[in-house]
Amino acid sequence: MSVDPMAYEAQFFGFTPQTCMLRVYIAFQDYLFEMMLVVEGVILKKLDAIPGCQISPSQIRKCTEKFLLFMKDHFDKLFGKMEEVLLQLVLNIPKNVLLPEDKVHEQYPYGKEEFQALQEELRQLQQQCRAEAAAGEALSAELEEQKAVTAELEKIVQCFDGLENICREHGTGNFKESFAFLTQNSKKLQDALKDVEEKSKKLERREQLL
């Protein structure tokens, strides 16, 4: 069998020429074996019809096997020549022939270096696409976070608007001014509370000394 992979022929035929020849060889070989069994059966019937024949079936089988080996040896030689002719002249695509699906290579020929450059460019484009996709995901997450913050701010604004409306209903005046006034008073109360706590601690220390 030929060791040439004949990949281009396999692309055209849909099978490798070597596989085709192997199947033909097996089919011929099987037919040869079957034929020899038929011949052996015919010989045995003929011998049974001859009175006083001294040839046994085992002798016939030995002769059949020898003849089969002889036929197989000659068949292998003939098949080797037939395989060589078929692989070269029938199942072979000439080097100057392009298949229809490969015509594009003739229109746009690329060398090894150009092909590697295209591969490198493709790799860079893939990296850029992945980077842009990651950036898009990050922007989407940031937008979602901004939406959540905006919603919370809207709630706070609504809360202050409600407090301002309550202040107006009770005649308190401007909510911002009231809030500033409450903040100042709260700070004064905190300072007074600290002063009281410090004086209380001093009194406790005096009582402990006494």
TrEMBL record:
<dbReference type="GO" id="GO:0051301">
    <property type="term" value="P:cell division"/>
</dbReference>
<protein>
    <recommendedName>
        <fullName>Protein MIS12 homolog</fullName>
    </recommendedName>
</protein>
<keyword id="KW-0995">Kinetochore</keyword>
<keyword id="KW-0137">Centromere</keyword>
<dbReference type="GO" id="GO:0000070">
    <property type="term" value="P:mitotic sister chromatid segregation"/>
</dbReference>
<comment type="similarity">
    <text>Belongs to the mis12 family.</text>
</comment>
<dbReference type="GO" id="GO:0005634">
    <property type="term" value="C:nucleus"/>
</dbReference>
<dbReference type="GO" id="GO:0000444">
    <property type="term" value="C:MIS12/MIND type complex"/>
</dbReference>
<dbReference type="GO" id="GO:0051382">
    <property type="term" value="P:kinetochore assembly"/>
</dbReference>
<dbReference type="InterPro" id="IPR008685">
    <property type="entry name" value="Centromere_Mis12"/>
</dbReference>
<keyword id="KW-0498">Mitosis</keyword>
<keyword id="KW-0175">Coiled coil</keyword>
<keyword id="KW-0132">Cell division</keyword>
<keyword id="KW-0131">Cell cycle</keyword>
<dbReference type="Pfam" id="PF05859">
    <property type="entry name" value="Mis12"/>
</dbReference>
<feature type="coiled-coil region">
    <location>
        <begin position="179"/>
        <end position="209"/>
    </location>
</feature>
<keyword id="KW-0158">Chromosome</keyword>
